User: Fold FAD-dependent oxidoreductase from Drouetiella hepatica Uher 2000/2452.
Amino acid sequence: MTTATRSYDFIGFGDEVPGILALVSAAREYYSRTGRYPKSVLMLRGNAQDGVGGHLVRGRLAYLDRSSVPEPTRRNFYLENFGDPPAIYREFLQRSGVDKVALDPGNATLVLREMMGEVGIDILSNAKVASVLKSGGKITGLQLARGETFLGKQFIDSTVNGELAQLAGIKKLVGYASLGLPEAELSVTLVFTTQGLSPQTLRNIEYAYLKRFINASDVEAQKWIDIAAGGDDSLAQFLRNSLTRAYGQLNTMDWGTDYIDVYSRALSIAYHAFRGSKHYLPESKAIFDNPNIAVLPGDRLFWNGVLFFVNAAQAEALARGGAKPTAEMLQEMGYVERWLKSLGATSVRVAPELYIRHAGNIVGAVEPLSGAQMTAGGVSAAQALGTFGYHFDTRGGILGLWQRAAKVGVKKFAFKAPLLNVGMRHAFFKEISNLAVVSPASGFTGGASAVGRIVEFNVAVGQAVGIAMAIAHLSNRNLSDIANSEVHNILVKTDRLPKIYGRYDPTETSTMGDFERRMYDASLAVSVDFDGAIA
Assistant:
């Protein structure tokens, strides 16, 4: 065991892409002001030899969720399909060779290493924090379990569960406590990669299933639907409804240059019939959902489609355990492998880590961000650091949402996708003035994390947070005091500010605000200490 002490300007904890790009942004801003690069280090629990880039790399989530911008807005602002992304994200995608949505994890880790190397960021693997050193409402350093101490001036936490913030003593709302559901959590996914199934072959397979499943005279196919529905007539009808579009057209997949979007449940029905399990996540604990598939050269298909049920405690445990899949999850993937090989796949490889969508939210943000604020268009144009649009995505569902909504008198909880101007102050916290949390665990309230958990949104936040870290360090100010407008002005001066086109939707803002107020219950908003004890 070593007892060495090292000093850094900027310390990043967790290697998710938004956190890495935030560190790069901080180093670049520091250099632009001083002519030299700061001392920076990226710490991760795992081994960097397995790749850096969190769930996009080791979790193999190659299909990127991109900003969704309505066509009239794109036309009015002369925007590309995915709007105008943050400058550092555009750079990362271009250097990684992304066409539309497919990110090669191998390219991603190389590019991230290059970007960090260009600004002198050290990488530290297998970093387990034993204690956080604090003084005067700031983190001063991290003491690792192996004895080393890392002193720092500014800290950024990009872990899905806000692990560093928790270690620093900040409380957290578990699960969806902000909606009165502290035990509920989003599903987790184990991405897998196939070879031997070309997009055309997959399209043909789906088409054949669709033709059979809509044929009421095909007794075997109808039996498969019944198996997938577990004998539940309403679920069977839901599955059947997914098979066709308006006017009875088959609901076939959309196959683009580097992606496949599957809309029907035809593949889901076929898998669950093969597996002999019900297509209902809370009961079966695992479902084959209609997948998003990234298509990379050599007919390498990266599937985001197998969902595993977890509660809030399980999601937190998985996050703390390095996102490693459980034995039960790997057993399920064995069935997936056998089924896909029966369809012609020659190789099925499971990602080494899970894609954990959400694991609670850190409390006490300087400016918490709610779903209603998102539907209201986010921050003002004068403060905006970018613009992002996405639907409130709770893939796999939030257990108990319908029942709680009925109990509190909420009649609507399906909302239009917000188009919001991005700020950064929900990532800063009152209790620790030199820490930012840039992840799904940031200071979101209500339904906001369903949008705010997306990587592209967090990169917009992270780029700004990085600039703010440099400002705070060089001016001896609190990171939490840096205003959106300060960073906005720097982005303008350096020609890095994307176009700003946030949209205020008064109807959605009113109904979302009512939804969030009714669903929240202070008595259910339990916080958790890092040792797992409910406070």
Summary: The radius of gyration is 23 Å. The chain has 19 helices and 21 strands.
